[in-house]
Design goal:
With 71 residues, the protein is an alpha+beta fold. Strands 1-2-3 form a 3-stranded mixed sheet, with no helix packed on it. A hairpin with a 3-residue loop joins strand 2 and strand 3.
């Protein structure tokens, strides 16, 4: 099991509610390559929110995938 960290900006705390509503956590890559291929089912994702600290520890339930749209 591997742990990964996801961050939510203190300027966009509403994004955490979006993540919970959809059941997904997204990352902005701006076209950069990521190491998302190393993420496996049952790995853990720790969520850090600016000015709040650690707010969640999640279990990965599926392989990473590219979003269909920005929405």
């Amino acid at each position: 099991m591997t742990y990964f960290v996801g961050a939510i900006s203190s300027q966009s705390p509403h994004n955490w509610q979006k993540c919970k509503d959809v059941g997904l956590f997204g990352i902005t890559t701006h076209g950069r390559k990521t190491n998302s291929g190393f993420i496996n089912v049952n790995d853990k994702l720790l969520i850090w929110m600016g000015q709040a600290g650690w707010i969640a520890c999640l279990t990965i339930t599926g392989k990473p995938r590219a979003p269909i749209s920005k929405e």
